[in-house]
Write a structure and sequence with these properties.
Length: 394
């Protein structure tokens, strides 16, 4: 006889009865249930009966448990940017994100001098990605610009809608493994959105890109391969794990509607957020970014950027990289396949976040899709609700 066969299973209701007995008349909901800003009632315990036949019964998994250690470099001087890049690579980064303009092929050669672009993921983000593509020959990474996301920020297209979509179409059609369609959901999270809003806005943006490019005759399979989603990672540890998992589930549902053959092809880049940094004791930011990084990794990000805990300290970038090295080489988080699987709490959170995000996404679609809600300010009104709610709680 096996050990656990000697014990009768305890039902969900039996746990509730025991808890109420121990509470001695106190209200269960008010005492033990926490209501999150996303409208999720977090219970004091979860078991297998908590999981119904729900939206996230099978969460798509990324094909590799490893992730890329990414460092961002703002281009002010081409030579200085190259030095910073080589220093980051020497320190163990294996992906670089360059933000800024490169004038010509000569400057590009200087920028990428001694960088092995065949094994290092190199990403470029600026308002003229087609120019960048023409003066380089990358095989790993991305060259893109989030036309829709930048329009959300500024209220204007980069040039015009017709020209921007035309440029995006030309780049997407290129026979290259380079990703060029960027959905920067991190901007929502960094500006006070809830987890549900960040996911819903990002998925809506992705669908808008799919619609715009399929209207140009591009195969949905190719469009899906060229996409990269960026998500912020905040300090709500378990919720952020669930957010990344929920994102993969929601995008799978979208890709099924577009009849994409590989419905689990979603590239997720995560970055810690500066919104909860302490300015008084900057070293506490090291602890905060560590737990945020763990959320992204356990959730299943493909690449991760940890922001330096203080930009005024020269070795801050080195510490940010080393946090990821510790999580790989000492915690072995890159060796465990789907570490959150089987955790009833995380699985239930994943489902509730996905359900609420999907509901908001459908509401956006009814309002005219991403471009429609930009015109009627629906997105900004939703974001203001979240900000007002956060300020009220404080």
């Amino acid at each position: 006889m096996k050990l656990f066969e000697e014990f009768n299973p305890v039902s969900y209701q039996e746990w509730i009865d025991k808890i109420n007995l121990d509470l001695k008349g106190k209200d269960y909901q008010q005492t033990l249930v926490w209501n999150s800003p996303e409208g999720i009632a977090v219970q004091p315990f979860y078991n297998s009966s908590s999981l119904a036949d729900n939206l996230t019964k099978t969460v798509p998994l990324k094909k590799n448990t490893d992730w890329k250690i990414t460092e961002r470099i703002n281009i002010q001087s081409i030579e200085e940017a190259n030095k910073k890049a080589l220093l980051a690579l020497k320190g163990g980064a294996n992906a670089l994100l360059f933000i800024g303009n490169i004038k010509d092929k000569n400057e590009m050669n200087i920028l990428l001098k001694d960088i092995q672009t065949d094994i290092i993921n190199v990403h470029f983000y600026n308002s003229n990605p087609n120019h960048i593509f023409n003066i380089t020959s990358l095989t790993n990474g991305s060259i893109g610009y989030d036309y829709l996301g930048e329009m959300f920020k500024t209220g204007n297209w980069n040039t015009s809608k017709e020209e921007d979509i035309n440029q995006l179409t030309i780049l997407t059609k290129q026979d290259s493994s380079i990703k060029n369609i960027i959905i920067d959901g991190a901007q929502y999270g960094n500006n006070g959105s809830s987890i549900v809003q960040e996911l819903a806005f990002s998925i809506s943006q992705g669908v808008e890109y799919m619609n715009l490019l399929t209207d140009k005759g591009i195969n949905p399979n190719l469009i899906a391969q060229k996409m990269q989603f960026n998500f912020s990672i905040n300090s709500n540890y378990f919720f952020e794990i669930a957010k990344i998992r929920a994102a993969r589930t929601l995008w799978k549902l979208v890709l099924e509607q577009f009849q994409v053959s590989d419905t689990e092809s979603m590239y997720i880049h995560s970055e810690t957020t500066p919104s909860n940094f302490s300015s008084e004791d900057v070293h506490t930011n090291i602890l905060r970014t560590t737990t945020e990084a763990m959320s992204a990794i356990l959730g299943g990000c493909d690449s991760l950027m940890i922001l330096p805990f203080d930009d005024t300290i020269h070795f801050s970038n080195r510490i940010a990289r080393n946090i990821q090295h510790i999580l790989k080489e000492e915690s072995f988080l890159d060796k465990v396949n789907n570490p959150a699987d089987g955790a009833y709490y995380i699985e239930q959170l994943t489902d509730e976040i996905a359900q609420k995000s999907w509901s908001l996404f459908q509401k956006i679609e009814k309002e005219g899709g991403f471009l429609g809600v930009l015109e009627n300010n629906f997105l900004k009104k939703e974001l203001k609700k979240s900000l007002d709610s956060t300020l009220h709680e404080k």
